TrEMBL record, chain A:
Gene Ontology CC terms, in alphabetical order: plasma membrane
Transmembrane segments: 6-27, 34-53, 59-77, 89-112, 140-159, 180-205, 217-250
Lineage: Bacteria, Bacillati, Actinomycetota, Actinomycetes, Propionibacteriales
Membrane topology: Multi-pass membrane protein
Keywords carried by this UniProt record: Amino-acid transport, Cell membrane, Membrane, Transmembrane, Transmembrane helix, Transport
Protein name, per record: Branched-chain amino acid ABC transporter permease
Similarity comment: family membership: Belongs to the binding-protein-dependent transport system permease family. LivHM subfamily.
Automatic annotation (TrEMBL), chain B:
Domain ABC transporter stretches: 2-238
Keywords: Amino-acid transport, ATP-binding, Nucleotide-binding, Transport
UniProt GO BP: L-amino acid transport
Protein's name in the database: ABC transporter ATP-binding protein
Keyword Nucleotide-binding: yes
Family: Belongs to the ABC transporter superfamily.
CDD domains cross-referenced by the UniProt entry: ABC_TM1139_LivF_branched
InterPro entries: AAA+_ATPase (IPR003593), ABC_transporter-like_ATP-bd (IPR003439), ABC_transporter-like_CS (IPR017871), BCAA_Transport_ATP-bd_LivF (IPR052156), P-loop_NTPase (IPR027417)
One Gene Ontology MF term: branched-chain amino acid transmembrane transporter activity
Family annotation (Pfam families): ABC_tran (PF00005)
Superkingdom in the source lineage: Bacteria
Length: 297, 262
């Protein structure tokens, strides 16, 4: 039982990373009906920026500054590379986001170097004991921060004029324009939010592996695609729940694979999200909370 | 004054939807814009509200002016900020937002008097106040039309462009909408009213235009149009004997068979 609960707590910590990434995908999807494949690069660049900032200004301030910095990168990328393409078929825009992903990761890769870089978080491998279950501090930190960010997002979309305008624009773009909503600002803000969220996701992806990052950190972000398929492309709640489900499932498979699949040598951990995605696409193509019409991109 | 001169609009670089249209919406007046399906009425409203772009439409010739200054090249948000609000054909409320959230989005272009405007809209449409927290998509067609109009009013517009507000509504509701339009106008907003229901539109308008195939074929005071034999036959559903075809449906059907210019 303690082993199970330990796996669940680790899974929730991992799920928090997926949730943050998936929220970015969903926010961009809702505002422009495009899946941005640039998210892995933003996550990578964000974490990388933190490794450079932490020695200068400390970890926490470093995360804040990096999130703002990557949000700014998101703004610039959207303005220069995406906005001129509006009106083109969505797969063209999706391919452009792949190009952005490759470019940003290549530039960032030059700053990583040969050895892993330290993110400089205060949690490291420290644990504490909760009713016999060993829990990592870094997982608690990931869950707390993610919860706060989700609540802040909910407040933003519910109470601020621009958040409300973004919801309206997602529902009916032309009607929102007729109210004076600037669709360009909606696009820009969604890219900035996705960039900031990806940065925080990148930080916790690094702390989850003990506090260091290498060139392959971005691979974690790919698992956010199964998450949004599970949760629904256009559902923020789905991103949260989907992230948790996939994170916990993946961690359970990692811990129990020897019991569950004794005939397999390879751990199924890495492919668990994609297996879930396949099942979801077969039985419920629009995901748990997605709108029916957006089942195919 | 809001106006267009010699306006030519093309969709997708090929479809010529307006072929040299001139029209004026003076402050504080009601102007009716009538015409058969596909005549270019909605296109003209889009040109007046910056919404051609999203339809891949483009002004080829002519100008859109506000108080004499050319504004045709501006973005939709700039039109809204300048006090021109377009109520789209088919109501287009934000179905998954509450009624009140719809209204708050309506204030996006001008949030100065949000609270006062909310009160004003609830006064005009008491039914919206009762259902303010309910999802807009669950409102009836008439209520959704009221919400769409109320939403446009939330930014204190100087001009309101209404695209077929009576479409698909029961005669009782159409009367209600008509009275509301008159009241909004009385409170100082200039109105350009596109209508299938010509009887209703000409009853309250000061001036009327008839468009056909992208051209203005009539441009007269509403009172003259009401008495014009052709208009009576084609748009009011009144035969030579003057017997009224009361039902909105039959008017529509009648017009679909006969075209103005033929
Ligand atoms: N988005 C669009 N793309 C291409 N062509 C369009 C578009 N919208 C309208 N048109 C064309 O422009 C012409 C004018 O259409 P418009 O919708 O302005 O007419 P309307 O008078 O509003 O008609 P209705 O009474 O049916 O609403 C029509 O030939 C129509 O097919
Ligand atoms: Mg129309």
């Amino acid at each position: 039982m303690t082993e199970f609960l330990g796996a669940v707590s680790g899974g929730v910590g991992l799920g928090a990373v997926y949730t943050l990434l998936a929220l970015g995908f969903v926010i961009i999807y809702k505002s422009m009906q495009v899946i941005s494949f640039a998210q892995p690069a933003f996550m990578f660049a964000g974490a990388l920026l933190v490794t450079y900032l932490t020695p200068q200004i400390g970890f926490f301030l470093g995360v804040v500054v990096a999130a703002i910095g990557i949000a700014a990168v998101g703004l610039v990328v959207e303005r220069l590379a995406i906005r001129p393409m509006v009106g083109k078929p969505v797969f063209v825009i999706a391919i452009i986001t792949i190009g952005i992903d490759v470019i940003v990761r290549t530039i960032g890769g030059a700053f990583v170097g040969r050895d892993p870089r330290q993110i400089g978080d205060p949690w490291g491998n420290q644990t504490f004991d909760l009713a016999g279950v060993t829990i990592y501090q870094r997982h608690v930190a990931a869950v707390v921060v993610t919860t706060l960010l989700v609540l802040a997002l909910l407040a933003f979309f519910r109470w601020t004029p621009i958040g409300l305008a973004m919801r309206a624009s997602a529902l009916d773009q032309e009607a929102a324009m007729a109210q004076g909503v600037s669709v360009g600002s909606v696009f820009a803000i969604s890219w900035a939010l996705a960039g900031a969220l990806a940065t925080v996701a990148g930080v916790f992806a690094a702390t989850n592996t003990g506090g260091s990052m290498d060139r392959n950190l971005w691979l974690v972000a790919l698992a956010a695609l199964p998450v949004i398929i599970l949760g629904g492309l256009d559902s923020l709640g789905g991103a949260v729940l989907g992230g948790l489900i996939i994170g916990v499932l993946q961690q359970l498979v990692a811990v129990y694979h020897r019991d569950w699949f004794p005939f397999l040598d390879t751990n199924l951990r890495e492919i668990t999200p994609y297996l879930v995605m396949l099942v979801v696409l077969l039985v419920r193509p629009h995901g748990l909370f997605g709108t029916k019409e957006v089942e195919r991109v | 004054m809001l106006a267009v001169q010699n306006l030519e609009v093309v969709y997708d670089d090929v479809v010529l939807a307006l072929r040299g249209v001139s029209l004026e919406v003076p402050d504080g007046k009601i102007v009716a814009l009538l015409g058969a399906n596909g005549g270019g009425k909605s296109t003209l409203l889009r040109a007046l509200s910056g919404l051609l772009d999203i339809h891949n439409g483009e002004i080829r010739k002519g100008v859109v002016t506000l108080d004499g200054a050319s504004i045709g090249q501006l973005k939709a948000s700039a039109f809204a900020r300048r006090g021109i609000k377009h109520v789209l054909e088919g109501r287009r409320v934000f179905k998954e937002l509450s009624a009140e959230e719809n209204l708050r989005v309506g204030a996006h272009a001008n949030r100065k008097n949000l609270a006062a405007n909310l009160d004003r809209v609830y006064e005009l449409f008491p039914v919206l106040k009762d259902r303010r927290d309910g999802q807009a998509g669950l409102l009836s067609g008439g209520e959704q039309q009221m919400l769409a109009i109320g939403r446009a009013l939330m930014s204190d517009p100087r001009y309101l462009l209404l695209d077929e507000p009576s479409l698909g509504l029961a005669p009782k509701i159409v009367e209600q909408i008509r009275d509301i339009v008159v009241e909004i106008n009385r409170q100082g907003t200039g109105i350009l009213l596109v209508e299938q229901n010509a009887t209703m539109a000409l009853a309250i308008a000061d001036h009327g235009y008839v468009v056909e195939n992208g051209r203005v074929v009539m441009d007269r005071p509403a009172a003259e149009l009401r008495n014009d034999a052709d208009v009576r036959e084609f748009y009011l559903g009144l035969g030579a004997e003057g017997d009224a075809a009361k039902s909105f449906r039959s008017v529509k059907h009648y017009r679909r068979r006969k075209r103005w210019a033929s």
